[in-house]
Sequence to fold (102 residues):
Amino acid sequence: MAKEDAYWTVSGMTMIDAANWLRTHPSNGLTVVYPSLESPNPDATNDYVHDFPSPTAYEGMTFDLATWGAHGAVIHLQIAVLSSNSTCATAPPGEQLGTAGG
Fold:
């Protein structure tokens, strides 16, 4: 599995506003797994937005957002992609492994 990270800041919008913007603007060809918008909450300090090909995908992008100052957000983007020779673990009998998007 190939993994990459990126970081950036957004000023002029709260962390919740940035997360909701990401939820309403999914990456090209991907779907936001939990698309429900968050309500403004001054006590909220972090949020996650998951963009995946499907809710059961094992690869995709996760945006990890945190409050930055009074009106800003810092974003950590994590990308994971399976290669053609990737193998996935097998769950024990009667158990199911979680997916990146589910």
Notes: Helices lie at 15-24.
